[in-house]
Amino acid sequence: MEVVRRVHEQGAYADRALHGAAEDLEPRERALAKRLAFGTVQRRDTLDWVIARHVDRKLDPQIRAALQLGLYQLLYTDVAPHAAVAESVELAKPNKGAGLVNAVLRKVQRAGGVDLPADTNPKGAAIRHSHPEWLTTMWWDWLGADEARALLAADNEPAELALRINPLAGVEVDLPGRREDEALVVDGPLDVLAHPLYAAGAITPQSRASQRVARVVDPQPGERVLDLCAAPGGKTTHLAALMGDRGEVVAVERHPQRARALAAQARRMHATSVRVHVGDAKEVTPEALGGRFDRVLVDPPCSGLGTLRSHPDLRWRASPEGIEELRGEQEAIVAAARAALAPGGRLVYSTCTLSPREEVVAGEAVRTLPHRDRTDGFYIAVDDG
Known about the structure:
This protein is an alpha/beta fold. The protein has helices at about 1-10, 15-20, 25-40, 45-50, 60-75, 80-90, 100-110, 120-130, 135-145, 145-155, 195-200, 210-215, 235-240, 255-270, 315, 320-340, 370-375; strands at about 160-165, 175-180, 185, 205, 225-230, 250-255, 275-280, 295-300, 340-350, 365-370, 380-385. About 45% of the residues lie in helices and about 15% in strands. Strand 6, helix 14 and strand 7 form a beta-alpha-beta unit. Helix 8 (about 120-130) packs across helix 9 (about 135-145).
């Protein structure tokens, strides 16, 4: 309840709100809390559409949140219906609207669910799959109806838990799962951040799509590599690992606090070849960084529309206007990257989004799609100098 209300009323990030609200819960209870909170945030527009069919007045935020949580459990989980109703009513108390919560949820329970609009057009698909209509329309026009429907459905499924195994740690990793290069897709739940292998720097959470990026950069031992907009450091430390930690990776990050976290990540991952530079990626120059680079990775700020499974509130933050602003920043960073690239070098542009306006480098490209590749949506383009 606290997570849902903070996201919708205060603009909080769901993962950060959950961290604060659920830190004292046991792992099993925390997992359930995450499922209910994230799912309710994801399905907000669908749940509000259902509420609007049963309530014809403005609702107090507490009552709306209780209804959303109860409806999410009734429509999308295997939580016992009587428990979903009873607990949601308790969450609404002592507000006088608790009776309304009870009445609406019991009506939906007796009906055995609701009939949502068909996803035969962007408007119906936006309601059925709980995405902003502008985003549904964009994907509909860009990918076609069938691909768009599949992508919308995939966005509401749980993301796989993928780890990157770090050879620089020199520690054997024996966890159950499926291997793909350095990636390990874990079978079952795992508290990664509390695991001894994480503290040892032997593993780090990173999607399989994100792990493709450093491999496309293809850094070689002894080279100078520039990583622009580098925090939190997953790709940075992967570049160092692929180089055998021989050479130099200059990681640029403009936010001092994030830069400190990036440096800590490099230490944990035994990436001694990483040098963190605090500065704006749009303004870096070869002179300031000690010369030109054999390879440059541009991983600029983006709308993140390829990561909606992991970030349930992101779909409600993005906007067409925001994408246009991001495109301008992306173009400026690419221009700085090209100026820092040595003749004959390789520039790789990567974004974790699915937005044609953010594909500002049009070279040889790879695109991953959640419904097709079972990982985050990424755009990775190569521009060889």
